[in-house]
Design goal:
mainly beta, 20-stranded parallel beta barrel, 14-stranded mixed sheet, 4 helices, elongated, Cthe_2159, signal, Carbohydrate-binding domain-containing protein
Length: 594
């Protein structure tokens, strides 16, 4: 069962059409109400775009990848019947319940094998198409479809058919290859067509390619002990409908031999994912150009060791430890909703990798991910309790009425609240979260946006309902937090509250309240004429508010209201804040990454 607040997805899908100039159009989801303008928010921060990272990812699909058609009249028919099989053409040999394809061609498979397999053992220039047309294959000790050798193999799901592949709980190697998937290929593998495929992997993986796994269509359901879809060089998906359930990672690409590989590319498709480990995991780069995702993850929903780029798509993460995590995270478009027990979006160098010549020892500059439990251990990562999500916090760090501070922290760093952090945090100059467009909604038990380097926002709409604990913040970065466009509303606890830096182009406000407000307490920002610019209703308790919008101008006065508290804010600088510190803490770094 998928948990979390599905209303968050409704929220972000409606935000694009709501208003920032008065509450003319209002979207309500549970306790959350956000109003925004129909005027597009955009801007530039002068930083490098994500095209360099995307250049390493293969986005191409061949015509044959995309074409699930076949000529039935010329195809070799293979009929399966319990413990035996028969074929009516050349290129096929049958021994008991083992069918071996040895030549290029199209092979139409129907019927059922109770305990057998199809093996492709052709020369490395041959392209083989296996058309599944109401086929069922179970193999207790190996892969139901095993590709030993070929140039490329296409598994086509015939229109209107339902196909089932499964395996036992222990595989026995019959050659030098370690076979660990219900469909296992040593070569490039493409799944196409419009039919249905059900894969049950009781041993380890569902569909595996030791080169590139491409999927361009079909209705695919995979239930696996370990990984559902895996490609050593790359997993690339053009379209299809996917139901992926696993005790491990749902979609994974990892290549230890070539550090330029291990990529995931998604152009489209509909995904429903439930995984105990990461839902999507790339050892190099992940690019999402489209698709609709509903994800429940026991760890990261989307993880890339190097670059994670979201250009489009609708992503709803209903439960996870962290939502988007990579060394560098870029959001250029799409609609993203994240419910995270820890950080919503996190930019940090991977623990075990050396990125661009940097020291791999993380110390306090990188967040160490929890080890996933073995199947024998009943110890799962779960979201924080409702008590922690909505509990109280100390008022000792809250400012007194009338206190206001303009500008950033000395040294050009962002404005922080009166947190209790001791010692310095290293800044990773290569790490960043960059948002140039799209809509992002984050509900985080830890930090909402957490970067071990910089936070760069030049467009889009960003809404963060952050932590209630004083050890985390709605916004957290170790380098610079620069905003040059877009709209940001971030609320949470005040202990480690952080705003944007003075070098930003667009005005912003960080305002810590004198008392913690209850969940559902409306926040409004009005100009001096009384026009309502912002209206936001957080779903959790909060005592700190960060707002930035193209509508904010230096020299202007605004009225900020949160429940019974009201403050007049005159923007005499690009950064306006009332955040205060205890004596001697002025040298505190701008982040609290762990």
């Amino acid at each position: 069962m998928f948990r979390g607040k599905a209303a968050a997805l409704v929220l972000i899908m409606a935000l694009a059409s709501t208003t920032i100039s008065g509450c003319k159009s209002q979207t309500t989801t549970g306790n959350t109400v956000v109003t925004q303008s129909t005027q597009a928010d955009s801007g530039t921060d002068g930083t490098t775009d994500s095209s360099t990272a995307e250049a390493t990812v293969d986005k191409d699909f061949s015509d044959r990848d995309k074409d699930g058609s076949y000529d039935e009249s010329s195809a070799v028919k293979i009929n399966l019947n319990s413990d035996k099989a028969e074929a009516d053409g050349a290129g096929v040999s049958i021994t008991g319940s083992t069918v071996t394809i040895s030549k290029e061609g199209t092979y139409l498979v129907s019927g059922t094998l109770d305990n057998g397999q199809i093996i492709v053992d052709a020369v490395d220039t041959d392209k083989v198409q296996i058309v599944l047309a109401n086929a069922g294959i179970n193999c207790e000790t190996s892969a139901a479809i095993y590709v030993k050798s070929a140039d490329k193999v296409f598994v086509t799901l015939a229109d209107g058919t339902t196909n089932k592949l499964s395996g036992g709980t222990e595989y026995i190697d019959t050659d030098d290859n370690t076979v660990d998937g219900v469909i296992f290929s040593k070569e490039d593998l493409t799944v196409n067509g419009t039919g249905n495929l059900e894969v049950n992997a009781s041993y380890k993986h569902g569909i595996v390619s030791k080169d590139t796994l491409a999927v361009t269509g079909g209705n695919i359901s995979v239930n696996a002990i370990s990984q559902c879809l895996a490609g050593k060089d790359e997993v690339k998906i053009m379209d299809g409908t996917f139901l992926l359930t696993t005790s491990g990672k749902a979609v994974r690409s990892s290549n230890e031999d070539d550090t330029s590989l291990g990529n995931i590319y998604v152009a489209g498709g509909t995904f429903t994912v439930n995984s105990k480990d990461d839902s999507f995991h790339a050892s190099k780069t992940m690019v999402i150009d489209g698709g609709t995702f509903t994800v429940e993850s026991g760890d990261d929903a989307f993880h890339a060791d190097q670059d994670l780029v979201v250009n489009n798509g609708t992503i709803s993460v209903t439960s996870c430890y962290e939502g988007l995590e990579a060394y560098r995270v870029s959001v250029n478009g799409g609609e993203i909703s994240i419910q995270a027990s820890d950080d919503g979006i996190n930019a940090a160098q991977p623990k075990s990798a050396s990125a661009e010549g940097q020291d791999t020892s993380q110390g306090d500059s990188g967040k160490e991910k929890p080890e996933m439990p073995s199947d024998e251990q009943v110890k799962e990562i779960t979201p924080r309790s409702d008590e922690n999500q909505s509990g109280t916090q100390s008022d000792e760090n809250l400012p007194q009425k009338g206190q206001q501070r303009r500008g950033g922290v000395p040294g050009g760093k962002g404005v922080m609240g009166g947190g209790q952090m001791g010692g310095g945090m290293e800044t990773d100059t290569n790490a960043y979260i960059k948002i140039t467009g799209g809509t992002v909604y984050v509900d985080a038990g830890g930090d909402g946006l957490d970067s071990n380097g910089s936070l760069l926002i030049s467009g889009g709409m960003v809404y963060v309902t952050g932590p209630v604990s004083d050890g985390d913040g709605a916004i957290d970065y170790n380098g610079d937090g620069i905003i040059s466009g877009g709209t940001v509303i971030a609320v949470g606890s005040s202990g480690m509250a952080q705003g944007f830096v003075e070098s930003s182009i667009q005005c912003s406000v960080l305002h810590n309240l004198t008392a913690q407000q209850e969940a559902g307490t409306v926040i409004t920002l009005k100009d001096k004429e009384g026009n309502e610019l912002i209206c936001f209703t957080p779903e959790k308790k909060y005592s700190s508010i960060v707002i930035s919008s193209p509508k904010l101008q230096t020299g202007s006065t605004y009225t900020l209201t949160a429940g019974s508290e009201q403050a007049e804010l005159t923007l005499e600088s690009v950064v306006t804040s009332n955040a205060v510190r205890e004596g001697g803490r002025g040298s505190m770094p701008p982040g609290n990454n762990r």
